Every structure is written in C-alpha cells, then in structure tokens.
C-alpha cells in the first residue's frame, strides 16, 4: 500500500500544481478564442488561486475528520470534472466558474496528498524518501505546467491543458478507492466548527483576492476593501479559535517552535519557488527574449530535470548524514547567487542568460525544500497530520501570493523585472536566517502531544 499511496499522492499533487501554471502560456489563446476582456482573462488564472487559498485550511482539517483516502477520492473527482467543464467552455463565465471550482477542490486534494504520505509511510528514511518525491513533483510542477501548456497550445489547442485533468483525476480516484477499501485511512472523528470554517474561508479568500489583484487598475478599491475585511475576519478567527472545542489548527501545533518557525521559512521559500520564479522567467522569455510558447516551455527542461534529480537522489542521501537546517542553508547559498545573476543578466545567449543560473537554482531548490517539509511534519501525531499538512500548504500558498504581489509591485515601480529577482533572492536569505532559529529535532523525537477533542 505504500507504493500505491505514494503514486496516488504524487499524481494528485501534480494535477493541482499543473493547474496553477498551465493556463499562463495558454492565456492569450484563450482570450482570443473566447473573446475575453482583460479583466475576465485575468480571472481565468485568479479564480483558481483565490478558490485554492481561500478554503485550504478548512479543506486540510477535513482529512482528519472524514479520512484522507475518502477525501482524496471525492476531491480529485470534483477537480477532474471541473477541469473538463473548463476545457469544453464556450463562454468566459463558464471557464472562470470551472476554474474557481477547481481551486476549491484543490484545497481539499493538496493537503490530503501530503497527509496520505504520513499515513502510509512511517517516520524515518522511508518517509523522507516519499517526501522528497512529493516535494520534487510540487516544485517541478510549475515548470512542467509551462512546458505542457506551451506544447499543447502550439500543437493542438489550449483546451487540452484543462481536459488532461480527466484521465489524471480518474486514475487518482481509482487509487484512492482501493486505498479506502483496504482500510488505509486515518479518520479520527471529531468535528469542524462551522463558525471557524466560515471565518477562515472569508479571511483567506479576502486575503487571496487582495494579493492576487494588487496592482490591477481595473480592480479599483476592491483589493483594499477585501484586504481590510480579511484582517477583521482573521482577528475574529483568532479569538474564536481560542475558545473553540474543535480548532482548525490544534494549539499544540502552534506552540511547537519547530513547526511554527518552519512554516515561516516555508512561506519565505514559497515567495520564490511557488509562483514567482516560474511567472517572471516565463514572462521574460516571451516578452524580452522573444521565445514562442513552446520554446519557453522547453527552456524550463534543464531546471526541472536538475531539481527533480537533486530532490530524488541527492537530498535523501544527504539527510542521512546532515541536519535539515544545514541542507536548507546550503540550498540558499547555491540558489541566491543565481537569482542575482538573473537580476543582472536579462539578455544574451541561452547558456548565459538562462541555462547556467537555472541549473544552479534547480540544485539549490532541490536541496532546501524537502528538509523544510520534513521539519514541519516530523513528530506530529496521526490525529493532527491533516492540520499540519494544511498549515504547511497554507504557508506555501500565501507565501507564494505575497511574494508574487510584492515582486509584481516592485517590477511595476522599477520598470524592470530585476527587482523581482532581487526580492526573491532576499526572501531566500531570510530563510537561512529563520532556519537558524529552529531547534534540533529528529524523527525519533517525541511527537506533538494530542489535544482532547471534547
């Protein structure tokens, strides 16, 4: 069951991550075929990210309540059907609605994939290897999405970028059903407070919209209002969670210094690797270097291959002899100079302007992301695995959103994407500083204590 659990987790996570970036290159073709205005076209991408981030924390907690395998089956089914509807859409509003539905389903699927790994793999080298594979899929998914989108859009149609979700989702549903029938599940019972779920959904949806639409002139004052409302709802959520018998994030997790600090480092890492890196490199290749969609997608192959190779074969071996903190710092030391390289060199031969720095970033990213994921999930009791996974994924999503918003604003102010790469480099420098504050703890340490559900 370990192999099937790993396969299902990685395939489902690949689908979720692909759909973050798969429409980026296809968006001009979508806009032209469906006759979309600029605002509607931007919502084809934004609806997914807003739906995803808005209910992620609630979706993650569901895994602990109803069971991971069952939740993965339902979530993947909805994700695949929504993607199919989007791929067949002939009206802009249908496509935007389908993308929002995909985002909501992704908020359930993504944390469930990681939770499934912790259920089917015991702590130690076996789990480290599984996390390395899952992390490699998560990291490379952005580049794979650009590659797949470029090839399918150029050779066939943008519609296939969404229709491929049907066979992928069908395979995940079949695997999840097998896992459920063989009692590979972790249902712990309990409940989810409707008040807490409503406040969390409102707060994170408002925050996601404010960050995603920041800097868009057509949005007017809506991002400001959404951001202000999100702050108010978040304050109410904090007060409600302190008194709730069924908190979305158990206070034991928040009190654990390794988990709390590790999630800060995860958010800072995501400011570079979650969205920003793929977005700004894609934009540079097509607008400054004159690459076609297919050429832009193919240019990511070295970065993807190196990142996968380091994650799958190098990092797990190094983790047997070195602490996660030292590997995170090593990854930062390798990746940061390459980001400054991108900031300084924006033209020239492919090898100079893209290949060399992208390979270095692939090595650095491959070294630091798996140790971080291990740090924030080691020692967590089974009843809290969904919440821990949700906390990590929420840190990733909002770290990526904040990073993209800040980099986009800086780029607009400076008139060049140099500012974006400088900000991404500085975020990784901050990761090294934050990780220094994480206490030493290995997989044999005592787990985070469980709380009483009553």
TrEMBL record:
It is found in: Cell membrane. One of its GO terms (molecular function) is transmembrane transporter activity. It is a multi-pass membrane protein. GO terms for cellular component: plasma membrane. The chain crosses the membrane at residues 43-60, 72-94, 100-119, 131-152, 158-180, 192-212, 218-239, 260-281, 293-314, 326-344, 350-376, 397-414, 420-438. Its main location: membrane. Keywords: Cell membrane, Membrane, Transmembrane, Transmembrane helix, Transport. Residues 5-442 form the Major facilitator superfamily (MFS) profile domain. This is MFS family permease. It comes from Prauserella sediminis.
